[in-house]
Automatic annotation (TrEMBL):
It holds the Pfam family Acetyltransf_3. This is Protein N-acetyltransferase, RimJ/RimL family. InterPro entries: Acyl_CoA_acyltransferase, GNAT_dom, N-acetyltransferase. Residues 13-180 form the N-acetyltransferase domain. GO terms for molecular function: acyltransferase activity, transferring groups other than amino-acyl groups. The keyword ATP-binding does not apply.
Amino acid sequence: MPLPAFPIKTRRLVLRRYAADDLDALHAVQSREDVTRYLYWGPRTREEVEKALAERIGLTALSVDGDRVVLAVELAETGVLVGDLTLFLVSRENRTAEIGYIFHPDHAGHGYATEAAAELVRIAFDHLDMHRVVARLDAANTASSRLLERLGMRKEAHFVRNEYVRGRWADEAVYAMLASEWESAKTTEPFVRGLPGDA
Ligand SMILES: CC(C)(COP(=O)(O)OP(=O)(O)OC[C@H]1O[C@@H](n2cnc3c(N)ncnc32)[C@H](O)[C@@H]1OP(=O)(O)O)[C@@H](O)C(=O)NCCC(=O)NCCS
C-alpha cells in the first residue's frame, strides 16, 4: 500500500518520518506521566525511548494487517517536534485503518493535534483509499474524544471495564468514520477544512 511522499506540509505543521536525532524530543514526550495516563504503557526511560525510536524509524510500510507507520509532527515555523501520529492497517480486506496521536502538553490547546490527525485521516481516505477509519481510546480520555469529534468522527461503542490496563479496569471507546462521511466532513467540519484561526 504506497504511502504518500513525506514530508507533508499542513497549514501550521510538517508531518515527516522520524530520524535518529529526534531522541531528546521523543523522550521529552514519552517520559511524562500526564502523556501516558491513558496509554497502554507508562512513562519510558531514555533507553526505552531509544528502542521505541529505532522501531519507529524501521516502520516504513503498510503491507499486511497489523503494520503501522509513525510520523513525527513538527511546527512548520520553528521545526520544534510537538507530537506524533500513528496509522495502523487494521484490515486490508476491509480497507480499515486506525489512527493514534500523542502530543507534548506544552503544545496543547492550539489545535495542532487536530490539524495533524485531520491530515492523517485525509491520507487514509484520499491516498490509501480506506473504507473506514477508527480510533480506540480509554473512554476517560476526554481530550482525545473531543479531538475525534472535531474531526467529525462518530462514537460507535463504549465498552465498560473491558480492558485491564496498568492495574485498573478501563472503559474503551471506539470512534469511526466511513469514506462517505469523510467526503462531507471535508466540507462541513471547520477543523477539517482548516478554517479556524491560529490560537
Ligand atoms: C489527545 C491529545 C492529542 C489532545 O490534545 P489537545 O491539545 O487537546 O488537541 P489539539 O492540539 O487539537 O487542541 C485542541 C484544543 O485547542 C483548542 N484550539 C485552539 N485553537 C484551535 C484550532 N485552530 N484548531 C483546533 N482546536 C483549537 C480547541 O478548542 C481544543 O481545546 P478543548 O479541547 O479545551 O476544547 C493530547 O491530550 C495528548 O497527546 N494526550 C496524551 C496522549 C494520548 O492520550 N493520546 C490519545 C490516545 S487515544
